[in-house]
C-alpha cells in the first residue's frame, strides 16, 4: 500500500466507524425518548396502587362517590414528580385536596393537565406560572385535606383543568409508554362494589331530589344504615336507600363508618369556634389529648362538640377515636420534645404555609416544644432557631 492509499483506507474506516457509532447512538436513544413522552409521578417500587379511577363507595364522610383520579399509597415525604414538561397553574391550598399542584401540558399535540393532591405543601417546591420539566420533583406526598393516610391523588384532565374532562390516569400514561401497574410494589384489587353501605352522620332529612328545595320524604336518625350504588350522586348530594325508600341526602351527612356520638380525643391543641368555619370567632382553645363529647351536628369536615360546659365547632380531622391517636402532646404529660416523622419538614416563621421558611428539618430530627399551638401548628425550637411546624408531621415517639 502506498502512503496515500493507506491514509485513504484509514480515513474510510474512521468514517465508517463514526457513522456506525452515530447509528448505534441514534438507535439506542431514539426509542427511549419516543416511547415515553411522560414520566411516572413517583419513583418505581415506592407506592401501591390503592384506589382506582371510576365509581366507588365514599371512603370518608363528605367525599366523592366517583373517583376522578388514581390514588398511590406512599410514605409521607416521598418525591412527587411532574408527569411531563409543563407550566404550573395552581400551587398551594385548596378545599378537600388540602394542598395541591396542577401542571398544564401539551404533549404530542394533546393538551392536558396533571393534578397532584394531598401533598404536604403545594407551594413549597413550585410556584404558579413556573415551568417544570418531566420528572422534576414538584411536591411531597402528604395527607392534607380529606384524606385518611399519606397518598398521592393524581388526576389527568384531557383538554386542561378544570374545563376539560378527567380521564383514567393509569390508561392515559400507559398509552404513552408508562405502565404504572408494573412499577408499583402492590396493586390492590380493582373491584367495584355493587352496593355501598353507609351510616347517617347526624339527624338528617331524606329528600326527593338533590337539593334543599326538594320535599322531605322522612327524617333519619343518626347512625342508621343506608345503601347506595357506587357513583350515584349529583354534585354534593348522594342518592341513598333507607328501608326501601330511595331519596337524597347531602354528602356531609353520609359516612362509611358509624359516627361516634360519644367521646373523641383531640390530636393537637385545637380552636373551638362559634360556627363551622375558620373565620368565625374562637370560643375556647382546647389542649391536645382532651376528651370531647360529640354532638349531633356535622358540617363538611366540622364537628359540633361539647368541651366542659361550652359547645362549639372543631375541625374533625384533628379528632381521634382513641387517646393514643395523639401523636404530639405538647406540655401535657411531660412531653417537651417531638421528632420529625417525614423526610423533610419546613420550619416556618408563623403558623401557616403562607409564612416564610426558617429552615428545613429532616426525618428523626428533634424539636423542642415552645408550647404554643395554633390550628395544628406547633411553635418549636431546633438548632437555636425558632418557628412553627405542622404538628401532624411530628411524632412523640423517639426514633
Ligand atoms: Zn384519590
From TrEMBL:
<keyword id="KW-0732">Signal</keyword>
<dbReference type="InterPro" id="IPR016047">
    <property type="entry name" value="M23ase_b-sheet_dom"/>
</dbReference>
<dbReference type="InterPro" id="IPR050570">
    <property type="entry name" value="Cell_wall_metabolism_enzyme"/>
</dbReference>
<dbReference type="InterPro" id="IPR011055">
    <property type="entry name" value="Dup_hybrid_motif"/>
</dbReference>
<feature type="signal peptide">
    <location>
        <begin position="1"/>
        <end position="34"/>
    </location>
</feature>
<feature type="domain" description="SH3b">
    <location>
        <begin position="334"/>
        <end position="398"/>
    </location>
</feature>
<protein>
    <submittedName>
        <fullName>SH3 domain-containing protein</fullName>
    </submittedName>
</protein>
<dbReference type="Pfam" id="PF01551">
    <property type="entry name" value="Peptidase_M23"/>
</dbReference>
<dbReference type="InterPro" id="IPR003646">
    <property type="entry name" value="SH3-like_bac-type"/>
</dbReference>
<dbReference type="InterPro" id="IPR036028">
    <property type="entry name" value="SH3-like_dom_sf"/>
</dbReference>
<dbReference type="Pfam" id="PF08239">
    <property type="entry name" value="SH3_3"/>
</dbReference>
<feature type="domain" description="SH3b">
    <location>
        <begin position="255"/>
        <end position="323"/>
    </location>
</feature>
<dbReference type="InterPro" id="IPR006311">
    <property type="entry name" value="TAT_signal"/>
</dbReference>
